Amino acid sequence: MKKLSKYCLSISGPDFEQCSQQLQLSEFVELRLDLYSLSEEELVSLLKTPKDYIATCRIEDEKTSITLLKKAIELGANFIDVDIRRTESFINELREYSSRYDCKLIISYHNYKTTPAKEELLSIYDRGISFGADIMKLATFVNSESDNSILLGLYSICDNLVAFGMGELGKISRLASLYCGAQFTYVSASSTSTTASGQYSYSEMKNIISAINQEQDKPISLIGFMGVGKTTVGDAFAKQSKIKFIDIDQEIEKQTSQSISSIFETKGEDYFRSLESKTLQDVTTNPSSVISCGGGVITREENRIILQEKTICIWLKADVEYCLNQIEGNNRPLLEVNDPLKKAQDLYKSREAFYKEVSHIVINVKGKSIAQICKIINEKINKPL
Ligand SMILES: Nc1ncnc2c1ncn2[C@@H]1O[C@H](COP(=O)(O)OP(=O)(O)OP(=O)(O)O)[C@@H](O)[C@H]1O
Ligand SMILES: O=C(O)C1=C[C@@H](O)[C@@H](O)[C@H](O)C1
Ligand SMILES: [Mg+2]
Q1: Tell me, what's the pLDDT at 337?
Q2: Which ipTM did the prediction report?
Q3: Considering only CA atoms, which of 113, 62, 117, 53 is closest in space to residue 85?
């Protein structure tokens, strides 16, 4: 089956004109056959839509519902939605009929009053799957924040699940479900044409998700103490993700044709810090990149603001001994003193709070291979959509 849109627009109708108008808004829709008043001809025209759709019919009378859903299956429904409270023969007949076509079965459970306990929801889920559901849908009324946690927590245990809360308090779960593993979420054509309580409108949901994606479309920056692995991990992660790698120290060396040590020696730390700030400012405009920073980048406030606001900032964290051990034999200008361990400890102490303040993600790297660190980065920044 081709990839479906994540937003299933539930068409409220009720007449043909309204249905047709709402249908224009999305590539994936739910046709609520119980909500419309259509002529036979209009119904057939609707069911023949080239859009992807779920056919749902909540008319009590099982004979009428079966006739309508079978028609939808024949005319191109991608899914039919059947309530778990229907008789077994109803579910079996439709499962058998849909399997003859390219149509999947959603078995749905609704509770318009409350969200049952996790164990009860799991047993309903199991029952739906044992009836042959391709997707099990759980929609329950949310009366408290913990109800949202119950619903969203099911995603870590159940596959092929679409679970979300109804009502105002449950609204956020309709969005969050996409980030937990739901294949799609239901939206309405507008705030006045919802088919269930708490639905976002299609445009509202798209705007929120596009804002979240934009927020995630920032370069990744790696910060942390000298020798912790920023350059090595950054380079490896960029190669693996096929995105650009920029190392601020290397960038400065390229631009000045001078080594970092030599800049420190001839022009001093302040001069180096200004070059570092300018370079950071320039390179953070590239969204698809990994930027490895120098260990002291967070000492300037202007840099901290950039890292925090314009990048997804990852602190590679380890103790000073680990870091020094990694750079043994390599010169770092700030550590060319009589007692490098003491100097490094003092530097670390003065910087630790800044690393913490600026970073959005912290990774303890001690004892982890470069590949393991890259895997963790991938998991932590993974974009759901
Ligand atoms: N997780 C790791 N496992 C094994 N070796 C590592 C790991 N991380 C870094 N190294 C090694 O440690 C050394 C220092 O790493 P790297 O130069 O990437 O640190 P850095 O954080 O960029 O330091 P600086 O702030 O001084 O630029 C390198 O030789 C690198 O190969
Ligand atoms: O910790 C620091 O202040 C530094 C770290 C290195 O990456 C270089 O940027 C330079 O040695 C300064
Ligand atoms: Mg480095």
Answers
A1: 86
A2: 0.95
A3: 62
At residue 380, the pLDDT reads 85
Ligand 2 atom at shortest distance from the alpha carbon of 296: 3
pTM for this predicted structure: 0.66
- The response to whether 232 counts as a known ligand-binding position is yes
In this prediction, residue 108 carries a pLDDT of 98
Would you tell me the crossing angle of helices 40-47 and 16-23 to the nearest 10 degrees?
Answer: 10
Distance 140 CA to ligand 2 centre (A): 54
Residues 146-171, mean pLDDT to the nearest whole number = 97
The minimum-distance atom of ligand 1 relative to the CA of 224 is 21
Ligand 2 contact via 332 beta carbon (within 6 Å) = yes
What CATH homologous superfamily does 7-214 map to? Aldolase class I (3.20.20.70)
State in Å, rounded, how far the first CA of the chain is from the last one. 18
Answer whether 120's CB lies under 8 Å from 134's CB.
no
* Cβ-contact 164, 170 below 8 angstroms: yes
Q: How far is the CA of 335 from the centre of ligand 2 (A)?
A: 9
Beta-carbon-side half-sphere exposure of residue 358 (alpha carbons within 13 Å): 31
User: Is 317's C-beta closer than 6 angstroms to any atom of ligand 2?
Assistant: no
**CATH superfamily to which 218-377 belongs:** P-loop containing nucleotide triphosphate hydrolases (3.40.50.300)
The dihedral region occupied by 242, where left means phi > 0, alpha psi between -120 and 50, and beta the remainder, is: left
Task: Give counts: helices (H), strands (E), the chain.
Answer: 16, 13
Q: Domain spans of the chain?
A: 7-214, 218-377
Tokens of 174: 């309709």
Q: Residues of the chain with pLDDT > 70: what percent?
A: 98
Residue 1 reports pLDDT greater than 60: no
Token pair belonging to 42? 């209009």
pLDDT in tens, 251-269: 999 999 999 999 999 999 9
CA count, 13 A, side-chain hemisphere, 36: 27
